[in-house]
Amino acid sequence: MYKYFLFIFISPLFFCIKAPTKLDPPYVILQYLQNINSTADQGNNNNNNNNNNSQCPAPAGPFNPGALFDTGQTLCWDGGGFAQDCTLVLPGSDGSFNNIPNARNFVGPTQHCKFTSDYTIFDPLHGLTWKACAQGQTGSGCAGGVAVPMNWADANGGLPGSCAELNTLNGGEGYAGRTNWRIPTVRELASIVHYTNNPHIDNAFFPSKTFTGTSYMTSTVDSKVAGNNWAINFAITPPINVRIPSITQVTPLGLRCVSGNAMPAPSFVDQLDGTIRDLNTGLLWSQCTEGQGVVGCGFTLPTNMDWNTARGNCNGKVLAGRVWRLPNINELLSIVDYSNAVLMLPAIDSTFFPLTANGLYWTSTTYDSN
């Protein structure tokens, strides 16, 4: 099976990343406080969702809604599409870093203890609960019914088949006893993509019947294209591979509903040494695209490189006394700014990543072509 490399539109350029095995003390404290707040908020949501079903235990925290899952990739491939030994041949490939930044972890499908026709999947890292089946499908393996795509107006308006309708089921107690079902954001839906499986999902937990060739809706609008929303396609059949397309709101899309607190927006701190810290993920980024100046990113232009050169460049990078690598796809997506509405500017926070080139950026993650 041939492998190619997944890169996002924000010319093959790249940032380097440093993922510490242990967060620096100030950020451990901040993350701990975030976890406490998240747990309290999630507890409030769980109390609201279980007023009439106290016999069904609510998930316990602490949760970390800003954290990132590992991509699920454990194999390495070279530029010719051949499998290689990760440790000996391809240092810096995604498959070399298992369970980084965090191990993938889901629980389910779980049958609700009171509403026994309702099945959910729990994400204990982020504290999110997913409906096990796409809207229109039923049963523990989603073999019943048929997926029902909807356009944005109908899905956002709470029509039958929408996520909002789930909140009215079971006599007003909501699907699986929860009344805060909603359309997921693009960050949330992207978090369940598995970059090795076929289809690209944790099929040990999410029934694979729920993921077809259709794209799935997110609540994140495309700020640069009026009337479009971002979507996720989990399919593997060429020429449509896993991707995050911008799709017009009048197009019917699949719906996968989620319950819980939304993932937070990025929270950056300029370390004033050519690096940027993300307080949500604990990741440290080089501020500038490779080839640019170290601080302020001026004076020189970004350097285009092939994938192998990009990995080697990050592996050998000397900056702030850290060890660097090429980021995986989940890590690079975490700094995308979906709210940037200026058409010709890249989708990134230019305050912390100035003069970022508008183009494609390499990741360490490979993907299937057949």
TrEMBL record:
Pfam families, alphabetized: Lcl_C
Coiled coil: none
All copies of domain Lcl C-terminal, residue ranges: 120-235, 274-368
Protein name, per record: PF07603 family protein
Organism: Leptospira kirschneri serovar Bulgarica str. Nikolaevo
